[in-house]
TrEMBL record:
<dbReference type="GO" id="GO:0030424">
    <property type="term" value="C:axon"/>
</dbReference>
<dbReference type="InterPro" id="IPR003593">
    <property type="entry name" value="AAA+_ATPase"/>
</dbReference>
<dbReference type="GO" id="GO:0005737">
    <property type="term" value="C:cytoplasm"/>
</dbReference>
<dbReference type="InterPro" id="IPR048761">
    <property type="entry name" value="SMUBP-2_HCS1_1B"/>
</dbReference>
<dbReference type="GO" id="GO:0043139">
    <property type="term" value="F:5'-3' DNA helicase activity"/>
</dbReference>
<dbReference type="InterPro" id="IPR034072">
    <property type="entry name" value="R3H_Smubp-2"/>
</dbReference>
<dbReference type="InterPro" id="IPR035896">
    <property type="entry name" value="AN1-like_Znf"/>
</dbReference>
<dbReference type="InterPro" id="IPR027417">
    <property type="entry name" value="P-loop_NTPase"/>
</dbReference>
<dbReference type="InterPro" id="IPR004483">
    <property type="entry name" value="SMUBP-2/Hcs1-like"/>
</dbReference>
<dbReference type="GO" id="GO:1990904">
    <property type="term" value="C:ribonucleoprotein complex"/>
</dbReference>
<keyword id="KW-0963">Cytoplasm</keyword>
<keyword id="KW-0378">Hydrolase</keyword>
<keyword id="KW-0687">Ribonucleoprotein</keyword>
<comment type="function">
    <text>5' to 3' helicase that unwinds RNA and DNA duplexes in an ATP-dependent reaction. Specific to 5'-phosphorylated single-stranded guanine-rich sequences. May play a role in RNA metabolism, ribosome biogenesis or initiation of translation. May play a role in regulation of transcription. Interacts with tRNA-Tyr.</text>
</comment>
<feature type="domain" description="AN1-type">
    <location>
        <begin position="807"/>
        <end position="856"/>
    </location>
</feature>
<keyword id="KW-0804">Transcription</keyword>
<comment type="similarity">
    <text>Belongs to the DNA2/NAM7 helicase family.</text>
</comment>
Length: 910
């Protein structure tokens, strides 16, 4: 429809022009016929009775005729007139200005007061220089008309050319724009801004591209825009991989690219763009091949030839040929290089002893350097010296170039050109890309907040993506439905190795956990090629490879540095450091952690000792972020399912938890644990009230934290509790103790008011059978079932003796004033590491409540749904009752708080 409108405009306008032209001709005709020549002369369009002053040959072989007033009249000035250069005029004999009397036509080239010069295409021979007189008449100018007509005809058929966009805008097919037109129309606004900024800067533009923000996409657009403007671009990067990536993308966009560098180092798909390949297909190729063949022939001849004279002759020939070859090749290289719009090489490949030496020094208009923050500034200067303008792209918040000399690094060698410019010039030369296309939002926000001033946003296509969503064949299990999973080894005794080599660290315990998590992911259907295991230390990388590579050959296990520039659907990161001193060494480089975390697209699991790593402020932000926005598990959960690490036959969890996680539990989180505890307890109590029910089964879906609570509650109420089944199918059965001869309730010791649990114990009407057993009986029972055969988890692997030592050391309950023996029946508190009688072993009772809560918090998964002990949300719980429970707990929390504050006083009265 575009063509239609131009077409109709043209045909209509041609008609109108024709009409106008005819009107003009008609007017001239009327003048010629009806107006006297004298009148025409007074109108200034006619000059009468002129004589020819001179005649000569001008440009393009035309005759130049100078017409002047008659000399003998004594006046040599022309009457005033409108003749001027460019006017089309007719020269007539004195018969008048009729067509029949026209001598010739021409164009005025000069008009002065005394003469008019006319250039004639075809001057007749009959012009009489001296005697004849002529009339000069302005003619309607059909040149203009003809030119307009031609332009209109061209406009009609215009298909491609410089005016295409203009035509389109002037005929209203497209909007006029003051901006450049982007070749990639899918760019986001930060990328567009970066492109126009790069184009408008005179000397330098820095494109800051955080992970996954489409840095290459942006750089490619910038280069294509430069090519569109006819500029020559030299494009470099630190690594061959990065250069090849650019070659691929530019070639796809039909740019004339040329890749310098040894063909053996290039990707196969890139080889056809290499200098050698292009040369082989150039016009010079066959001549060069001929010369080579001749040279070979001469060489062979030289070898065979005995005759000395012949030999010398051949030698001379070879050297002639070699010279010829050199000049031919140089010419061919220059030609190929000049033809390319974009020449690509590594920074060092852009040196001027290589092919680039055959180009003039000012050949390139722009230099583009990608990955600029990962290269030594000095290496950037190799290409930089070749152009008047540079575009630098990269992310200085990722790892800088590796430098072996500590001294050199600390004195500034590791500062990249990009970093230096950002520091010195700031925003005036930098544009940042802010939409990222890689990470789930929960993974991204940590990096954004702590590395990129909170400026990043996640593109809609990735914002919420998870392993379980969209990835084919991946089942929805806990591990695949969470973008962030923190597996905390704090207090589990998974210490780092004390290697003699101080530089590298390993942590076999964390390798165990990683293995189990990889197992969970792959069992859920995540392909091992979509998972990366990243460790900051090479020793740990080795340990991980030894353990995992045979079973998962596609699993990539690399150091952080080795994974820069890459991405994976799932990343499992082990931070290795776990020591009492809280040393984090290598991990203290924020950019290393940033790189490690930002490789992950849908899932990031971090295995670490939060106790150790949170001594470092930046690492603490990561732990805090994951605690707040992700799932948190304690490594115990993993170690329990390991058969050879099984510590307790009842599966109730670790007996030792000497160091709880970061004790920053919020009120809210404390309440959540208590609610959970309360719900399990309610469930058990409901069971107790229902005499028809013989036993209460908790499903195997219960997580280990809830299982621990079940055991605790059952123990507290003097019930039997037993784990049955194997592995994943393990579940707990709670039942009443066998009906024994009734005995008086034996309430061990007054409970501490701060415990917050005694209320429940002393609740008005304890159901029948409750607390009816003597401690000794329970002990016998328990012992028979091996309930309390606890040992220290962390130490089981190393020194079993150590564990019993603790047990032996204490003969009576550690609770103040309690004298109950714990020799046969006692329980170790996981937090204070002391033995207590059954009445005092619950952390809340003897004063470890806060630690227990903090620990529990670590185990609660992110949803924070209130489980009714089943592992699934119990919708049957009456909302009114729930609200009541909440109010009850709230007031209890307040009481606890009050009591905590007045604790010292109470101790005195105790
Ligand atoms: N404007 C966009 N719209 C949609 N997807 C985009 C856009 N820009 C980039 N992407 C996608 O983001 C991913 C990364 O882009 P690109 O390859 O340009 O970046 P890179 O330079 O390789 O990586 P990084 O941004 O981490 O430096 C690619 O999958 C690309 O398709
Ligand atoms: Zn304790
Ligand atoms: Zn006691």
């Amino acid at each position: 429809q575009c063509e239609m409108e131009v077409e109709s405009f043209v045909s209509k306008t041609l008609d109108l022009l024709q009409e106008e032209r005819e009107a003009e001709i008609e007017e001239t005709r009327l003048w010629q016929e009806n107006i006297s020549l004298k009148d025409l002369q007074s109108k200034g369009v006619c000059l009468l009775k002129l004589q020819i002053g001179s005649q000569s040959t001008g440009l393009y072989g035309r005759s130049l005729i100078v017409l002047e007033p008659r000399r003998h009249m004594g006046v040599s000035i022309l009457p005033s007139n409108n003749f001027g250069p460019g006017d089309i005029v007719g020269v007539y004999d004195l018969d008048g200005c009729k067509p029949s009397s026209q001598v010739c036509t021409g164009v005025v080239t000069r008009a002065s007061q005394s003469a008019i010069t006319v250039a004639c295409e075809d001057p007749p021979d009959r012009l009489n220089l001296d005697t004849e007189l002529y009339n000069l008449l302005k003619l309607a100018n059909d040149v203009t008309y003809k030119r307009m007509k031609k332009a209109l005809t061209t406009l009609n058929g215009y298909s491609s050319g410089p005016a295409s966009d203009l035509i389109s805008v002037l005929f209203g097919y497209s909007e006029p724009s003051c901006e450049l037109s982007f070749l990639n129309t899918g760019l986001d606004s930060s990328q567009r801004e970066a492109v126009s900024f790069a184009l408008s800067q005179r000397e330098v533009a820095v494109i800051h591209g955080p992970p996954g923000t489409g840095k290459t996409t942006t750089v490619v657009e910038i280069i294509l825009q430069a090519v569109k403007q006819g500029l020559k671009v030299l494009c470099c990067a630190g690594s061959n991989v990065a250069v090849d990536n650019l070659v691929e993308r530019l070639a796809k966009a039909k740019a004339r690219v040329l890749r310098l560098g040894h063909p053996a180092r290039l990707l196969e798909s890139i080889q056809k763009h290499s200098l050698d390949a292009v040369l082989a297909h150039s016009d010079n190729a066959s001549i060069i091949a001929d010369i080579r063949r001749d040279m070979d022939k001469a060489f062979m001849g030289m070898k065979k030839q005995r005759d000395k004279g012949e030999k010398i002759h051949l030698k001379r020939e070879v050297s002639e040929l070699r010279k010829e070859l050199r000049t031919r090749e140089a010419a061919a290289i220059t030609e190929v290089l000049k033809r390319a719009d974009v020449v690509l090489a590594t920074n060092t490949g852009a040196n001027d002893t290589g092919p680039l030496k055959s180009l003039p020094a000012d050949h390139f208009d722009w230099v583009v350097i990608d990955e600029c923050a990962q290269a030594l500034e000095s290496s950037c200067w190799i290409p930089l010296l070749r152009a008047r303008k540079c575009i630098l792209a990269g992310d200085y918040k990722q790892l800088p170039p590796t430098i072996k000399s500590q001294t050199a690094a600390s004195k500034g060698l590791s500062v990249s050109l990009m970093e230096r410019l950002v520091q010195n010039r700031g925003d005036s030369v930098v544009r940042m890309l802010t939409v990222q296309y890689r990470m789930n939002r929960d993974i991204m926000t940590w990096a954004s907040d702590h590395m990129y001033q909170g400026k990043l946003t996640a593109h809609g296509s990735v914002e919420k993506h998870l392993l379980s969503r969209d990835l084919p064949g991946v089942a929805s299990v806990e591990e695949t439905c969470t973008p962030l999973l923190l597996i905390d080894t704090a207090g589990c005794g998974l210490n780092e190795t004390e290697a003699t080599d101080e530089q590298s660290k390993g942590n076999p315990g964390e390798v165990d956990i990683v293995e189990l998590h990889i197992k969970a992911l792959t069992e859920a259907g995540v392909k091992s090629k979509d998972i990366a295991v990243i460790a900051p230390y090479n020793l740990q990388v080795d340990l991980l490879r030894q353990r995992l590579s045979t079973r998962h050959p596609d699993l990539e296990i690399k150091s952080v540095d080795g994974f820069q520039g890459r991405e994976k659907e799932a990343v499992v990161l082990t931070l290795v450091r776990s020591n009492r001193k809280g040393e984090v060494g290598f991990l203290a480089e924020d950019r290393r952690i940033n790189v490690a975390v930002t490789r992950a697209r849908r899932h990031l699991a971090v295995v670490c000792d939060t106790k150790t790593v949170t001594t470092h402020a930046f690492l603490k932000t990561l732990v805090d972020h994951m605690t707040q926005h992700g799932d948190v598990r304690t490594a115990f959960e993993y170690l329990q399912v390991e058969p050879n690490m099984h510590v307790c036959s009842c599966g109730s969890g670790p007996s030792t938890h000497s160091r709880p996680g970061p004790s920053t539990a919020t009120e809210d989180e404390q309440r959540r644990t208590l609610v959970q505890y309360q719900e399990i307890k309610d469930q058990v109590e409901r069971f107790l009230q229902d005499q028809d029910q013989a036993e209460l089964r908790f499903p195997s879906t219960l997580n280990s934290h809830d299982r621990l609570l079940v055991h605790q509650v059952a123990e507290e109420l003097g019930l039997n509790h037993e784990s049955q089944g194997e592995g994943k199918d393990r579940f707990i059965v709670v039942s009443r103790p066998p009906a024994e001869p009734h005995q008086a309730r034996e309430d061990p010791q007054p409970l501490q008011p701060a415990a917050g649990l005694e209320e429940e114990r002393n609740s008005p009407d304890p159901p029948g059978g409750l607390f009816s057993q003597s401690a000794t009986q329970m002990a016998k029972q328990a012992k028979a079932k091996g309930y309390f055969n606890f040992s220290l988890l962390g130490k089981t692997k190393k020194t079993k003796a150590g564990a019993s030592a603790v047990v032996k050391a204490e003969r009576v309950c550690s609770f103040v004033k309690c004298k109950t023996s714990v020799v046969h029946l006692g329980q170790l508190c996981s937090f204070c590491n002391r033995q207590y009688c059954l009445g005092h072993h619950i952390p809340e009772v003897h004063g470890c409540g806060d630690l227990a809560k903090a620990n529990a918090r670590m185990r609660i998964s992110k949803e924070g749904v209130l489980y009714a002990g089943s592992g699934l949300k119990d919708k049957s719980v009456d909302p009114n009752r729930k609200a009541y429970l909440h109010r009850k707990l709230d007031s209890r929390l307040k009481d606890m708080e009050k009591q905590r504050k007045t604790k010292p006083k109470e101790k005195e009265t105790n």
